[in-house]
Design a protein that fits this description.
Elements: E1 5-8, E2 11-14, E3 17-20, E4 34-41, E5 45-51, E6 58-64, E7 67-73, E8 84-89, E9 93-97, E10 101-107, E11 111-118, E12 127-129, H1 150-153, H2 158-163
């Protein structure tokens, strides 16, 4: 797949709680090398992140909470370069993000838990990001006062990153 895809997964509920299928190989081909989890407060924005080498495909699943996920095509050779895909995430949905996409996520509940499955290891030296508030991308995160890491506040715009190359 070359574009992000939202996949509905099965949740089986009973009096004890639930059992949720996260990923079935027969539905999507994915080679997982690295799994991580994040817990975020309401109004946190993480991203827009990518690795410029050792690029990662991602499978994301919200275990608790709600979020807006934003994917930006950063493949300069693609006719869809700069195209934005947005997905409302909640438990029961799985999001596949192919390589060559920057990924950002904004959380809406008091506690939000996100499970990441990645096709490539995390390499700090290759980690990059786009400005979450890039004026040309015009992403509406649907919150007024975002909580953002110092690192994410200092990412350049898409235009600034790719004009250098």
């Amino acid at each position: 797949m070359t574009i992000p895809v939202l996949i509905k997964t099965n949740i089986y509920k009973d009096s004890r709680g639930f059992f949720k299928e996260l990923w079935l190989k027969k539905k999507i081909k994915f080679n997982c090398k690295f799994t991580a989890i994040s817990c975020s407060k309401k109004n946190v924005i993480r991203g827009l992140h990518y690795q410029n080498k050792k690029k990662q495909s991602k499978l994301l699943s919200i275990l608790k909470g709600r979020a807006l996920d934003v994917c930006v095509n950063i493949d300069k050779k693609s006719k869809n370069f700069g195209k934005i895909y947005k997905f409302n995430l909640k438990p029961g949905l799985l999001l596949y993000i192919p390589k060559n996409y920057a990924h950002g996520i904004c959380f809406y509940d008091q506690e939000n838990i996100l499970l990441y499955h990645l096709s490539e290891y995390r390499y700090v030296k290759y980690e990059r990001g786009l400005a979450y508030n890039d004026k040309n991308l015009k992403i509406n995160w649907k919150i007024k006062k975002p909580i953002i890491s110092k690192k994410d506040k200092n990412h350049p715009s898409l235009r600034d990153i790719f004009k250098k190359k």
